[in-house]
Write a structure and sequence with these properties.
Number of helices of chain A: 1
Largest sheet of chain A: 12 strands, mixed
Distance between the termini of chain A: 49 Å
Strand content of chain A: 25-35%
Strand order of the largest sheet of chain A: 3-6-9-12-15-18-21-24-27-30-32-33
Oligomer: homotrimer
Shape of chain A: globular
Helix content of chain A: under 10%
Chain lengths: 251, 251, 251
């Protein structure tokens, strides 16, 4: 049985499955399709032509763990999902996130509050995007990658499966560490190979490439390939692989 | 409240929980048990004596991300689940997959279209099996392992937790890369240690063993142990660990 | 529509969402808040002031895979969740687990049977806690970490994202291996860096620190930093990072 709050606003040509739950003050655009058991929390805004799959939770309020270091309690803006967005099954997206046009989010992913995701970006299955993170346009973040809080990812970056970002060099010790929390910064078009690990606050420069299984402990140089643990320069990114030489790249 | 389509066919001795959703043209065998909030999409076929846990989604249609490299839009055969299969909570299995007798799938896993899984294989918690992958009989794929698209896994392989497969040496760059997409090929009885990374298209030979945390960049030799990043030969697999010497092995 | 068994006992000031399912003989304390689509299996006990989010499954019975090496079939005690516990969306916790006061479990996590989790411990998003594992007080286990069966984690340990524990040096071969199954043992206040791998049965001593991306193959010494694959001593844990010098530490 469906529960749809009377003060929600729903556009024409609305398709939905069974056991739908729409809380108060939700706004849904035209031509939106929702699966079964979808939960849409209060105030969430969904644009035209979105597809949302089964058992998804949208607009979740963060809970604060009594001893979490980064989450703070305050009023968040509603979750805003723009047009033509696709969201896979069993995914949860928090209040305070903003998802731009044509973003694709796969199954079993989690996107936290204070995250902005740019247009046409792909978020893979089981990916975690922690809070206070910005993600550009045309980014690909693949299956089970972990994007820690306070990360920055610019346009056209590629992050392979099971990559791990970190933001705390002090692993939970000392009070002063809180001043230094910082996720990695990924400059335009850089690429991170599968199952690599990025240390806190490191800068991966434009179009640089990290080979699979590396541990990156220092900032990288543009258009260089890095490999190993700790990652060292291995050579130049081949000309034909540079972002500017891709036919999908728009300046 | 349950929604069961009138043109679905359900065998005797059917047990199910609350909020069940069975779409059109589903066929369910005898002695099947379903948990709460289970979603079974149209045309899905479930054999006798299966157990399916809470909040599972079966028969999901793939969505194509506007810039996905591997997924194509076409008609898929219905999801087919054979006899005595067990499926854990919060798992999603796509239309176009085929799950053989006595397979066990744990919680929070994802199995995509065009995947065949052989008899008595175990798929662990949170495992991802991407599309166009074949998995043999008596395989174990452990928690959170990532099996990329276009992989081949033969009988009796063992894949430890958090292992990462890759299929694109070009990390999303150049058009010609699409000709070379290829996941790893795992020959009969090979074993991959925890949190290891396998590069695209490499062949892990019969009964070879990759130590935990390795990065495998080249094909391996039969019955050899490999270790490190890049993985190098460390020695021979002990006689008593060879597949042919296991009492559970059937030629 | 909600299904609440008549022989469940529910305390005052109960708040819950839609499509709630409470099976027989459940006991829920005062001031408990449940989200939508929550499934609470028979006999589960939930203490006062708990918050449980959408699509959670509590009290799941383990299924035995026909060829699982560790799971055995027997009667388990009911899932017991103490006071002030918070549980995120789409998480599953098994019958036979015991969750102490003020524990925080994030979204999409899985906690198996025969697990005890001490007070104020944090379990991150997508974390897996396998069976027969004990976890102390004030522990942090971060996103997507994998805690294998038969592990021991003492108070104040810190486990960074995507860490992998292992418990079988024989990777599924030989009968005698079953005598040697053993997860890692983490002594008080030790810390494991992101995406590291711990071999079976190793002991990480008090306050020792494993750098990100390491593979730990031997027992460590107290208050030493380890790094690399295989992990070797790199130096001493700085004085100001020792557990005894943290203001949150209570002897």
């Amino acid at each position: 049985m469906n529960y749809i709050s009377k003060n929600s606003i729903i556009g024409d040509n609305f398709f939905h499955g069974e056991n739908l739950i729409i809380e108060d003050n939700v706004k849904i655009g035209k031509n939106v399709s929702l699966g079964h058991n979808v939960v849409i929390k209060k105030d969430t805004i969904i644009g035209d032509n979105c597809i949302i799959s089964d058992n998804v939770v949208l607009g979740k309020e963060p809970f604060k763990a009594s001893n979490s270091a980064v989450t703070e309690k305050r009023e968040l803006t509603p979750l805003k999902i723009d047009k033509l967005v696709t969201i896979g099954a069993l995914t949860v997206i928090y209040r305070g996130a903003e998802i731009s046009d044509e973003v694709f989010v796969a199954d079993l992913a989690s996107i936290r509050e204070d995250v902005k995701i740019g247009i046409k970006t792909i978020i893979g299955k089981g990916v975690t995007i922690e809070n206070k993170t910005s993600i550009g346009n045309f980014v690909k973040i693949e299956t089970e990658a972990y994007i820690t809080a306070l990360s920055e990812i610019e346009d056209y970056c590629f992050i392979a499966p099971e990559v791990t970002f970190t933001n705390d060099n002090y692993l939970g010790r000392t009070e002063e560490r809180k001043k230094y929390f910082k996720g990695p910064i990924l400059k335009k078009g850089c690429r991170i190979g599968a199952n690599s690990t990025l240390l806190p606050g490191i800068i991966i420069e434009e179009d640089s490439l990290i080979a699979a299984g590396s541990v990156v402990t220092k900032n990288t140089k543009k258009r260089k390939i890095y490999l190993g643990s700790p990652a060292k320069i291995f050579g130049d990114v081949p000309e034909e692989q540079l972002l500017e030489n891709q036919n999908y790249y728009k300046k």
